[in-house]
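Troubleshooting entry. The earlier prediction with nicotinamide-adenine-dinucleotide gave an output that would not parse, so I re-checked the input for stray whitespace and re-submitted. Clean input:
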Amino acid sequence: MMNDQDNMLKKTTSGGLSAIYPELRDRRVIITGGATGIGAGLVEAFTLQGAQVIFVDIQDVDGQALAHRLAPGALHAPAYHHLDLTQIDAVTGAISGFVKDLGGVDILINNAANDDRHAIGDVTPAFWEERMNVNLRHQFFAAQAVIPAMRGAGGGVIVNFGSISWHLGLPDLVLYQTAKAAISGLTRSLARDLGRDNIRVNTIVPGNVKTPRQEKWYTPEGEAEIVAAQCLPGRITPQDVAALALFLSSDGARMCTGHDYWVDAGWR
Ligand SMILES: NC(=O)c1ccc[n+]([C@@H]2O[C@H](COP(=O)([O-])OP(=O)(O)OC[C@H]3O[C@@H](n4cnc5c(N)ncnc54)[C@H](O)[C@@H]3O)[C@@H](O)[C@H]2O)c1
């Protein structure tokens, strides 16, 4: 017999989000950059699994609207909080507070980033710092803030977001790509140090995902060029990425750690 959660899942999702992981029900999840784009897809996907989701962002209108849209029928309504991830003291304090409120934490999804284009000649030391802070630094400190609770509970899952961009060497993204390349090293290092505590750490490497922000960078012709370079036809959606995040967070992935997992439709 279908319950409300099953009905909601059936009504509101498509394609990549067909799986239900019973163990994700009630799991405590913190998602960064959850107000828009892929992050919003992650918030929706974990909420539909019946998880307890707290998500943070700086886009308050979108964050609150998403929390409001997902609340009806949810086993646990997702909670939105404003948090600027470039402010490390605030990150550490907020995440420790969320862990306290949730009575622990099972899953951290380090999704937030900023892929503003920039030319090499325009980079100043201050801009370097700012790009590393928005694209790399918070992933480490958010992880550091959840580790004690995960250790105490006997395990947990951390999913970091990398990018296909530096693998392809895309133009005008040198600092973003430098930060995203470091995330693979961060993941491997954390996975090694935390594995014996049963904390799994992986990187999701998205290809080009159709989000409102990506539509700002690519014309329809540019999108067509990307699709032509993929093995598979069609555009990758936030739901396709969320489907991988759900699997990596599930008990089915219990022996997966320390690696990059790609969802790129075979873009080369
Ligand atoms: N969309 C793609 O094609 C693509 C491709 C490769 C990698 N990725 C990666 O996937 C993740 C999600 O990408 P997206 O396309 O949804 O990005 P997006 O820019 O659409 O969304 C990122 C979210 O992070 C938030 N954010 C940015 N700076 C923040 C800050 N200082 N504090 C708090 N929140 C902040 C933004 O407000 C936004 O809601 C990112 O890590 C990105 O690098 C995306």
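This one parsed fine. The longest strand covers residues 199-206.
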